[in-house]
Structure formats: structure tokens, C-alpha cells
Specification:
Elements (H helix, E strand, L loop, with lengths): L1 H21 L9 H10 L2 H24 L3 H4 L2 H18 L8 H18 L10 E2 L6 H4 L30 H11 L3 E7 L3 E7 L16 H8 L10
Antiparallel strand pairs: 1-3, 2-3
Helix pairs in contact: 1-3, 3-5, 5-6
């Protein structure tokens, strides 16, 4: 075991330095229109040249943010698993960092992206009703609904966490749903009448050109926010 760690320790250090390097760059925000244009043009080479660096920048920034989470959250099996997935994806995509966009590389890169997508597509699973008559939410907990890790559900079993949605039932559904809406400059609001029901209002930009990504960017300011005892908003404001 010690010999194995010795063999892999140089690689781990190299990956760590690469993560530090890419985390210094700010992710490039895309609009809904630019995503549509990418799909229409189907220019694989331009997409490859953009993604081979951009994905590394985004993954590095995400991992740096995750490292600053409260220790209680970092020790949960689901967070460890998700962080491991980001590490694996970063390492796999790093091999294309300086690759040329020849036909063979484009095919391999496309297959690799499919594997990365499959790895991450169960990180968040959410479903929102527009309106219901399920009795509403008690007024004394309405203010907590968008707090991370606040849940009224029973904690899920850690068994088979690799195959199920690892963050389901842990109090991430509503805050992450709102975060995804704000990701494209929209928003999510809940209106509840205790004893009657709840309405969920999702606002999105009508124009695809205006719906640009609002991306998190790791910085020392982020570190200060996590170290502070005062609870502030997430990166979306």
C-alpha cells in the first residue's frame, strides 16, 4: 500500500498543481443563444478548442469552492463521492489539454465527454410542481426552505449511494433549483398558504440572448465568506 501511494504521489501532486493553475482563470459565461448557435453550426473543432480548456477551468473552480465547504458537510459520504467524481473528470479531460483537433482526437474526446456526463448526470435530480393543494408549508419553516441542508425528509440510507441520486433528501433540491434558475439570470419563488397549498413561480429570460450564464469564480473572497460565522448568500447573490 505504501509503495502504491509512493508511485501515485507525483501524479497527485501534478494534478493538484493543475487544479490550482486552472482555478486562477474565470469561467467563460455562455448565453442560451450561444449554446443554440453551437448546436446549429456543429463545428466540432471549434467546440473542442473551447471545451478542452473551459471544462478544466470550470471543474477546477468548482473543486476549489467545494474544498471551502464546512467540515461537517465535507465529511458526508455524498459530498466525498461528488468531489471524487469532479477529480476523476478533471484528470480524464486533462489529457486533451494540448491535443490537436484531428479526427481521432475528436472521436475520443466526444466519447470521453459522454462518460463524464454519465458520471455527473445524477448529482442533482429535482422536480417542481407549479401549484398544489397539499396543505401548504407551516409558516415557521417557510424561511428555511432555501437553506442548504435543511430538510423535512428522513435522511436517506448511505447504501448504494453511488447508484442513486447522492444528494436526494439532504436539503439541496430547492436551493439548487433556484441556483440553476439564477444561473441563467432567472429566479425561483415559493408562495405557500398554510392549510391550503403551495405555488412555485419560475422566472426565466424570454430572450435567449439575455440569458447568459452567471458563473461562480473561486477567489480568496470566497474563502473569507466560508470562514465567516455570518451566513451570506451564495454566489448568485
Amino acid at each position: 500500500m505504501q509503495f502504491t501511494r509512493y508511485l501515485f504521489s507525483p501524479l497527485i501532486r501534478i494534478i493538484g498543481r493543475k487544479i490550482d493553475d486552472y482555478a486562477q482563470f474565470r469561467p467563460s459565461a455562455l448565453s442560451m443563444q450561444s449554446l443554440v448557435d453551437f448546436g446549429k453550426l456543429r463545428d466540432e473543432r471549434n467546440s473542442f478548442e473551447f471545451l478542452k480548456k473551459e471544462l478544466l477551468v470550470r471543474l477546477a473552480n468548482i473543486m476549489k469552492e467545494v474544498e471551502l465547504l464546512p467540515s461537517q458537510l465535507m465529511e458526508t459520504p455524498s459530498t466525498k463521492l461528488v468531489y471524487q467524481w469532479y477529480q476523476e473528470s478533471f484528470q480524464e479531460l486533462l489529457q486533451y489539454e494540448n491535443a490537436n483537433a484531428d479526427e481521432s482526437t475528436l472521436r475520443d474526446f466526444s466519447r470521453q465527454l459522454s462518460r463524464v456526463l454519465k458520471r455527473h448526470n445524477t448529482v442533482v435530480e429535482t422536480m417542481a410542481e407549479v401549484s398544489d393543494q397539499g396543505g401548504g408549508v407551516p409558516r415557521h419553516i417557510v424561511g428555511k426552505l432555501f437553506n442548504y441542508m435543511y430538510t423535512t425528509a428522513s435522511l436517506p440510507s448511505v447504501e448504494n449511494v453511488e447508484y442513486d441520486a447522492p444528494m436526494a433528501g439532504l436539503g439541496y433540491g430547492l436551493p439548487l433549483s433556484r441556483l440553476y434558475a439564477r444561473y441563467f439570470l432567472g429566479d425561483l419563488f415559493l408562495f405557500s398558504m398554510e392549510g391550503y397549498g403551495t405555488d412555485a413561480c419560475l422566472y426565466l429570460k424570454a430572450s435567449a440572448v439575455d440569458a447568459s450564464e452567471m458563473l461562480p469564480w473561486f477567489s480568496f473572497r470566497s474563502k473569507k465568506m466560508y470562514e465567516s460565522n455570518e451566513k451570506g448568500p451564495d454566489w448568485s447573490g
